[in-house]
Sequence to fold (216 residues):
Amino acid sequence: MIHDKTMRKISSTIRMMTLALIALTMVHCINEGLLTHEKEMILSASPNVPFRVLTIEQTNDSLFLRQKARPLLKKELQKESIKHLTDRMLATVTDSTQDGVGLAAPQIGIGIQLITLQRYDKEGAPFEHYFNPEILEYSESINAGREGCLSIPGYWGNVERSQNITVAYLNREGKKITEEVEGFTAVIFQHEIDHLNGILYYDRIPSGFEALEKAE
Ligand code: NI
Fold:
């Protein structure tokens, strides 16, 4: 009977889709959160000890900087290892030998979606940490500005970025925040979120690395 045949077809399709969904969910779970060797690396020194920053001068570092970062699970955000990680990222970016305004976890060899950056648009310009950040909207108005990167020491370049962005992220409590950011802070967000996608700032310059200037 046609009716039975159709029903069988539908139920087999549903079964297939369910299986595919389960498989997808499993792959997703495996690819999220901190890996064992990452946890060990984070906890190998005190919270005030800076990490080594990966640079494009070393082949292995360079390959890692080109990878996409994994999202963190909400339930992980308040774990001790994550607190330890953000403390050490702060120690790294504020280290007198670095003196940066932002840092992304892949830059210190941790492949997760976490950035630390200085909020010049807030009173006292505090450093803050953002988990699983993504840019939802870019303004059409573009500004060119000077950028450098701790992973590309000794160089700077002029990069065109959106003047305003809408960014969404999780805070440490796992609450999803959406906010509009503008000016230099928006530039830092764009630069750091690029790192989570394996993008370096000179990729945004038409003639690439060749266009960079040597820092004095
Ligand atoms: Ni950078």
Observations:
- The pocket of nickel (II) ion is lined by residues 149-151, 191, 195 (CB under 6 Å).
- Strands lie at 102-104, 114-118, 127-138, 142-147, 155-162, 164-170, 176-182, 213-214.
- The chain is about 35% helix and 25% strand.
- Residues 98 and 142 are 28 Å apart (CA to CA).
